[in-house]
């Protein structure tokens, strides 16, 4: 059995695809796998904000097209990049166990002491996310925000070169790349009450056409992460949120219960818990509270 795995070509995307590949081989030792690197619009156009080149989904459009055309068998995505609707005839067959979902403030080491001692000074903060701008404006209220695009390596190099004083990144990406202990920087992981993460941040989702490969993917699915994935995407659906909508959402499963927090401005956070089977109603109730 051969399984062609579609992925973006960035180093982080390939690492994530290799994680899926290893999970598949562990579940199906007889499988022959092939990574197929696909360039997406979001990778090619790096001089404009995401919402100006197509919004949520610009990192998966070409990969979904390859999947529906039968050029690949499964597709690997950073779940937070996915559009609300999937391509017709496809499903998310699996998600891997979630990595840390939190945001991390990465600070140039020469500025770290000053920033900690004087958060009211003016700093140049690199982020293209309206959600992260809302969070950072509370932590560093007099800062100037500057858009930043490119992969994690590129963003960290721009920070080191002095284009920014600090930048906001997902801890999951830093950890998967092994770039969360670079001595050039000081890392401050932000608690959910400081920066509620993007829906599905830290989750790797695996998409396939309905049928044979969807059945295969069930063998590598992490059930608790899938519950969080589905619940946080329900928040996106209820809000009809595009990539510029500053929505934060974080679900956690424990003991048959699911706890969910949602926000639209990083100031008012609506939180609650419910039995797992009532998770959609919980999401609807909390969205109404915003």
Query: What topology, given as strand order, has the largest sheet?
Result: 2-1-3-10-4
Which series of helices and strands comes N to C? EHEHHEEEHEHEHEHEEHHEEEH
CATH architecture verdict of the largest domain? 3-Layer(aba) Sandwich
Number of DSSP strand runs: 13
Question: What integer value in Å does the Rg equal?
Answer: 19 Å
Biggest sheet descriptor: 5 strands, mixed
What is the overall silhouette? globular
- Unreliable spans are none
- The CATH C-level class name of the largest domain: Alpha Beta
Quick summary of this structure?
With 290 residues, this protein is an alpha/beta fold. Helices cover 34% and strands 25% of the residues. It has 10 helices and 13 strands.
Can you walk through the features of this model?
With 290 residues, this protein is of the alpha/beta class. It has three domains: 1-96 and 203-221, Periplasmic binding protein-like II (D-Maltodextrin-Binding Protein, domain 2, 3-Layer(aba) Sandwich); 103-189, D-Maltodextrin-Binding Protein, domain 2, CATH 3.40.190; 222-290, 2-Layer Sandwich (Double Stranded RNA Binding Domain). It contains ten helices and 13 strands. The protein has helices at residues 11-27, 41-44, 61-68, 109-117, 130-139, 152-160, 171-177, 212-217, 223-239, 279-289, and strands spanning 2-7, 32-37, 74-78, 90-95, 103-108, 124-126, 144-146, 166-170, 185-189, 204-209, 248-254, 257-263, 269-275. The strands form three sheets. The protein has a five-stranded mixed sheet, sandwiched between helices. The chain has a five-stranded mixed sheet with strand order 7-6-8-5-9, with helices on both faces. Strand 12 (257-263) and strand 13 (269-275) form a beta hairpin. It is globular. The termini are far apart. The mean pLDDT is 93.
